[in-house]
Amino acid sequence: MSMQQASQAAAPVLSIRDVTVTARATERKVIERISFDIQPGETVCVVGESGSGKSVTSLAVMGLLPKTALALSGGEIWLEGENITQASQQRLRQLRAHRMAMVFQEPMTALNPVMTIGAQLDEVLRTHTRMPAAQRRAKILAILDSVHLPDRQRMVDSFPHQLSGGQRQRVVIAMALILEPKLLIADEPTTALDVTTQQQIIRLIDELRAEHNTAVLFITHDFGIVSEIADRVVVMNQGQVVETGERAQILAAPAQSYTRLLISSVPSLIPKPEEAVDGDIILRVSGLAKEYGQRSLFSRKAPMVAAQDVNLSIRRREVMGIVGESGSGKSTVARCIMRLIDPSAGQIRLHDDDMAQYRGEPLRQIRQKIQIVFQDPYRSLNPRQRVGESIIEGLLNFGMARETAWRRAADLMRTVGLNEEVMTRYPHQFSGGQRQRICIARALAMEPDLLVADEAVSALDVSVQAQVLTLLREIRDRTGIAILFITHDLRVAAQICDTIAVMQKGRVVEMGTAHQILSNPASAYTRQLIDAAPGRDWDFQNFRPYAQTALQ
């Protein structure tokens, strides 16, 4: 009997039966009559857009629904034969340590910033076991080994802010698995990570699942990850399960139109056809460098080099991508170009003006021609200011009459696919994709020559991501604006970028057309990034592996 057949023959670790969760304030059903099982050693991916009910499902299983906002109003949740919907809070606390555990999307919010990693892992063991100190110490070192963290002793003594994002996520996984639970819930654990770290985390979870026969509930909006890790898939939309099935069946022959929409929205790693870009050069960067810290009489510590000898140029109507892992220097270069931070050396010429030399009012004036869209649109907008006021703020600061500025803002809202009537709403009244459209409208209000998009679609659902990418292309074609596109997602870069610069450890290691970089990379590092892209072997637009298409 195969492992999969054996797991199917066993009783499920988790069984969700007709579960309904209701919003207390409005009596609206947030999730309605959902049902599925997870067998020992099985990975079930729950997929859907923001607001589909994925995370609410996981919180209901963990008994962590916010009591003032949401209520479990129907159904049963069985964990290894125990109905946990009837369990007391004390019993749920016991179950969360020994029988089920959760890995959240943002590890920095899941870790205590004022406690060392060792102290936080030790706290779990002291609270839930009677192990002596020496045994707890050995257990901590062993679990850090199992999640492949280097220099265990340094990790034990480090604080969360001293680790990289990928290392922090490994620590959270270690904390979840230290008591070997039977169920692991992973809620978007790789969304904000670069492709190589993402691949490492996916492999780690799969390796630990196989080693301990753990059931895994993996929540994601990325079908690229689904193609790598799932045994079965549960597709959710507006609080309901619309389709379930084996991974191969869902990816190759989805029955529901919503599932087909989600899958076909995943960007292809095959670059778009090459187009000649022959406009005037808008931006020329020469010898750009940025260092943090400097030697002094009191410290001989060498400065940290974030960017070094960066050279690039962008033409009108061109979309240039900068790709690389976290810490490669992508965002540092973008912030230096925007002059949000001062470069340590080099020239940043916007047309004929060297922005690196400007200060004060001259810099303020030239910033009209260069605007930025950040990764998190909610943090980019003032929560106390209506979105229309946010869009016209820059125009008013540069002397435009309020009535004229409001008309331009209304035109821009239509440009980004929103109705001008919503300009009187506040940011929290929009979805993530709508907020990002508002941020794009605000950036375009100044009629810039260069738009810098710093991970502008990495936190969005694939369907919303596809809409924003289409919007950026349409704006580029209509206005002739140049775009500097910062991303760690090579599939996104393949679909929007004309040229790509690959950065590693602060340096540009390869630059060329998107087709050249992604189809025939010269650098081993670029090949490593491409190989790490989740779902790279799957043609999502045509619902089949690339090996079955004429693309290879």
Explain what this protein looks like in three dimensions.
A hairpin with a 2-residue loop joins strand 19 and strand 20. By secondary structure, the protein is α/β, with parallel strands linked by helices. Helix 9 packs across helix 22, helix 16 (387-397) crosses helix 17 and helix 17 packs across helix 18. The chain has a six-stranded mixed beta sheet with strand order 6-7-8-3-9-10, sandwiched between helices. A six-stranded mixed beta sheet has the order 16-17-18-13-19-20, with helices on both faces. A four-stranded antiparallel beta sheet has the order 2-1-4-5, with helices on one face. The chain contains 22 helices and 22 strands. The chain has a domain at 281-292 and 302-532: Rossmann fold (3-Layer(aba) Sandwich). The radius of gyration is 25 Å and the shape is globular.
